[in-house]
Amino acid sequence: MPNTSSLSTAPVVEVLRLTVFAHPDERVAEPNWWSDLMGVEPEQRTSKPGRGEFQDAGPMGDAMLSLSVQPGRADWFLTPGQFVPGTELVAEIRSVGVFPDKFGEFVGLMSRWLPSAPRVVRLAFGAVVFVPTESKESGYRMLSGYLPSVKIDPVGSEDLLYQINRPRNSVSITGLRMNRLSKWSVAYFQRFRVGIPVPSQGIQGQLGDRVHACRIELDMSTSTDMSDALPADHLNEIFRELVNLASEIAQKGDIA
After folding, report:
1. What does the pLDDT look like over 86-101, one tens digit per residue?
2. Could you say which DSSP state residue 148 is in?
3. Phi and psi (nearest 5°) for 45?
4. Tens digit of each residue's pLDDT (9 = 90 or more) over 127-173
5. Scanning 106, 133, 157, 175, which has the fewest C-beta atoms within 10 Å of its C-beta?
6. Quick count: other Cβ atoms within 10 Å of Cβ 255?
7. CB of 193 within 8 A of CB of 87?
8. Is the pLDDT of residue 8 over 90?
9. Best CA proximity match to 188, nearest among 169, 167, 214, 164
10. Please, are residues 85 and 205 in contact by the beta-carbon 8 Å criterion?
11. CA distance 137 to 179
12. Please, which residues bridge with residue 213 across strands?
């Protein structure tokens, strides 16, 4: 099974997400969650009061932190910062940082917000992690290590997408089930140079070599059959457990 600590290129994180599903009796007004958490006003705000929806977003270092609220749920996303066309070469895999360091930073940030969350019936953590490889074939060989129950032909395989959920019982809350959904594939990226368009000439692009990577999409969540709110004083503990489950899969592969 792959050992990510021994790779010459560190795994990178493309997206991180925290989702809370509010209790049906809970009404979420338009709060100042983003500004309270970050200490400044968001750079962008979109509000649709009639539909009970709003979005806040702003920079967090080189990344972009956004909050999306709609009736019954709230989602926090950490995504790569916006790219401004110019003369700089676009990175092969745009990311928010390396794994597992960025997981820890996100946990610290969200742990400060969770005490102000509405009553929660379900909690979810999502992430997309890329492990760079030398080629498509080496990517499928790496997937074979991550997916011991799947037989993969590294040379003859293309467009593989493997998805599985292996639930576990929570170690934080007795009787609470944790969904461990993972999706596996091999992706490729092609770097290019983007220039500011000249009138009538369009955007100029210069292609480079393809960069391949194993793509791991992780979605850890508490069970959907909970009707009562999760204990508020245990939300951070449950969240950390979800993140630990995701980290385990990213490091050890598809294990029971």
Report:
1. 434 444 688 999 999 9
2. T
3. -145, 130
4. 999 999 989 999 999 999 999 999 999 998 889 999 999 999 999 89
5. 175
6. 13
7. yes
8. no
9. 214
10. no
11. 31
12. 132, 187
